[in-house]
Amino acid sequence: MSEELNQNEPTTGINPADETTPAANAAPEIETPVEPDPEPAVEPAPTPTQPQIIVQRERGFAHYVGFALLCVLCIAFYFMPGIALTFAISLIPGISLGAVAAWTFSAIFSVIAWAIFKLKIKGIKKSFYFYIGLCVLVFILLTVIEILTEETNVFSKIFALLCGAA
Known about the structure:
mainly alpha
């Protein structure tokens, strides 16, 4: 009958026999596994059937003019040694060159100058650097001649020679 009374009475979870041991009074901790936060949803890569939008800025007229000027200046800088030699030849009395002849001789002289650097210096990269150094040296020399001799007008005469106005 005492078992029936014990079954009918509400239980508190504490046994009177276990009151003497403090470790027994502590409820066992239940470890719950910690689940990581779900990763944010990643959008799938566009498939070939989905349209892709490409936004491209429209370039103005100044962009193309600047690009053309840059190309012309690069070509003129590359042919600088040949242009200087052609200009020196055109200063000889009795020799007149047209624009086509001036550009042709300038190109031939420049290629010959680069070929000499290529034959003397091993490696295309190293010979290119030396040729660029020659171009800079010739440009500095022409600038010094322009500044020291006010009557020569080197760059204007070179421009006139290459345009066919000389």
